[in-house]
Structures are given as structure tokens and as C-alpha cells.
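Q:
My hope is that you can spare some time for a protein that puzzles me. I hope you can help me see how the letters and the C-alpha cells relate. Thank you; the sequence and its C-alpha cells follow:
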Amino acid sequence: MLKAIEIEFKTKKFLISKWVILINRYSCEFIERIIQGGMQKVYQMKNGILKNNCLTLMSIILECYRGGYNEIRKTVITHCLNLVNYGIFSNREMEEIFYWNGKLKMVSNWEKYVLKSTRCRFLYWHRGHFPIFFRNIVEDRHRLNQMNYFLMALRDPLDML
């Protein structure tokens, strides 16, 4: 059953990727609105050097969000937010930014999460039951299509060994 789910995700990968792009755009626009609100506080700063540094960091953050989400950009954004958080964003705004960053990570890494949740490594420890599974599949002619999925599931523990 898990392998059937994995195959369905693989066949729909193109359509899911289109939705991922749209969700990423929407999430990034939401985060950009929060950051634009912080830009107003940066413009009101009196210290010229601190103001210029904060403006540079904020522009780097905005460029990273406009470029799409990946782990490297997430790291750059996190470091820049840690440096900029000098009274620019409230705790609620920072929580919202980190919440949406978590959502971006989850949506962007959907393939990794599907593979991780559909892997069948547990079968290695239950290999004594394989003859029973094979016999049940072969005896019922309506279940022969499950043989392919079962054989795919048997391949999962190989990378672990």
C-alpha cells in the first residue's frame, strides 16, 4: 500500500510541483509584507551606519524570498533576520516569519517527506513472513498486481544495509 502511494505521488509530480510553486509564491509574498513593514522602522532609524547595514540585510532577505525557497537561502535568511532583529520586528512578527518559513520548508521538500513516509525498511526485520506474503499474493489471482508493489517494498532496506 505504501509503495502504491509513492507511485501515485511520482506520477502526479509535475502537477504537485506546479502547486508547490504557487504556494511558495503566496507564502513569500506574505512574508515580504511583514518585512516591508519592518523596512519602515529601518528608515526611521537615526544611526547612519546601523541604518545602512539594516537596509542591506533587509534587501538581502527580500532578494532571497523572491528567488524561491531552498536550504541555502533559508540559512542566509535566518542569519540576516538574527542580525536585523535589533528592535525592528516584534516577537509576533518574528514568530509569523518563522512559521511561514517552516511551511515553506515543508511544502518545498514534499518529495523527501513522501519518500520518508512511504519507505518500507521495517520489512527487513519481518523477512520471516515473506513466504506467507508471497503465498497469499500468488494464491489469489486478483492480488497478483500487489506483487510488483511488494517487490518494490523489498528494495527499500537495501540502502540501509
User: Anything to note?
Assistant: The chain has eight helices and no strands. The chain has a mean pLDDT of 79. The two ends are 23 Å apart (CA to CA).
